[in-house]
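input
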Amino acid sequence: MAMPIEAYAVIGDCRTAALIGSDGSIDWFCAPRFDAPSVFGALLGDEEQGRWSLRPADAAATGSRAYTPDTFTLVTRWVTAEGEVEVVEFMPRVGHGGGMYGAAGSERRSDVIRRVRGIRGRVVMQQELRVRFDYASSLPWMRQVGTAQAPALLAVAGPDALVVRGQKLVARDHRHVGDFTVAAGETVDVQLTWYPAHLTMPDALDVDAVLAATEAWWRSWVQSCVEPGAYDEAVRRSLLVLRLLTHEATGGIVAAATTSLPEDFGGVRNWDYRYVWLRDAALTLEALLHHGFTQEAQAWRGWLLRAIAGDPADVQIMYGLAGERRIHEWEVPTLPGHGGSAPVRVGNAASEQYQADIFGEVMIALDATRHRGIDEDRFSWSLQVALLREAERHLDRPDSGIWEIRGPGQHFTHSRAMLWAAFDRAICAVEHDGRSGPVDRWRSIRADLAARIERGGFDTSLGSYVQFEGSTEVDAALLQLAQIGYVAYDDPRMLGTVDRIERTLLRDGLLRRYRTEAEVDGVPGDENAFLACSFWLVEQYAHTGRLDEAAALMDRILGYRTDLGLLAEQADPRTGRQAGNTPQALSHLALVRAADAIAHARGIAAEGALASAARSSRGRPGSGRLGGRVSKAERARQRG
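output
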């Protein structure tokens, strides 16, 4: 059986990724792209679905692990009764001869390197290799192709080939095993290379060279980060995760590196997240822009323009890494599921849904690129105008909402607010950025959307916005109404909504997306707390003077990170287990936003304290304002 989700590390080359358990087993690896069929699939079953284990032969060995700072080089230190070793694991960012994997032809190989360094004494290391191509449906033909001095094992099945070099492996019951001993001061390298079976086997890599180059690249990238001033370590790791999930060649940002990790253990809420959601990618873009990563923003905008080019009526909520439109969902009979949570799905039927909120997220993201000084060509703006025309055609159409419900469509309040934001940003582009468009009509549509939200999306008897027209439920997506500028964070309507969200959606200190027992989503079973939503609540607290509560909730959520700083989609507050696909872009970008909000609030508080001290020293009374924001006490005094 696979290990718990939180037991996995991730390594990657910005084209695909591998998940490595704390037991030394690579249990998930798809090549050459995130969304390719798996080579190792034990994450969604057990060793029979494929894995590559490398660890001490001593079953009593203990291990501890960490990333080399500011990289995705995983270093695991194993201690046995006889000695101690380090296993250094990474996926090279550069290929043989120094060529970048992001270049043309880069999908001709994917490499995983595992280097064992002897630290003390002597340690016997044990390998077990089970290659299972195509989601464990294809058992390869395997043969020895190396020499006694340079052993190599080749696996071939259909379009896939894989070679493992470095140490002798011998066949045993549809697996290959081998032991080797590493003494103090010795280094032993093992390399795995996937490549298309019709091509010539690639050369081995110079491990010293590619390790140095790969680590230098990661460090150089993250060192250009604009630090938020709060939770810097967590923010840097999260930004690194977002970069790892950005496909180098195309600029597409995948939602996660895995498919079908359960939101409800033992249940059917298992989805494939190895695609590019316009929503998640747009929000990731904003986080990267805020921290100074304009090159990634330009690459994503190029991806977006290519993906949605054509008839605006054909716009989808998600695409493949290169903008592919066909993401047919099917169930995989050869993978039994993580802990028996079935079915395992490949593809995602939500790609066929209408979700009105994506118009807002895309327009907000492109507005952010303009305001960060990224030049916008005529094609980009004309495409945005066409998208708005398409949004206008569907203003009264029910949709599936941000949470991709598989029940009947509804008039979701969050979706209507995101449509409002789409037209609001277009109006801003005309009024402030020199763009041209039917701004009077857009103003009228914006006003009509606001009137509809207040009429059908706000319940005066509850003092709260509601999930959809006619509902008395709330969902955590309503926290985004303040984030997009539809309503102020401290508006009484927003505060009433927050109060109701706290009373109905908090479970053991973390937020759920909505009450699954209300049966709005059309899927059986429950789910765990959704981490991004809890980070949104941190942001709300920080912007409304509840800074101590914001920090306390932030610290609580960060406690669910793995020992390597990684977050999946959800967490079970009762057990501490992570749930859902991992590492999850939305969780990490929401972490970044929450940290930014706390840093901003602390800066305002510090400015207010200095101003108050200055006024006190001059003998003048305070104004009741905190950095330009009216305090709760002052508002109460004004009302009284």
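quick obs: DSSP finds 15 helices and 28 strands in the chain.
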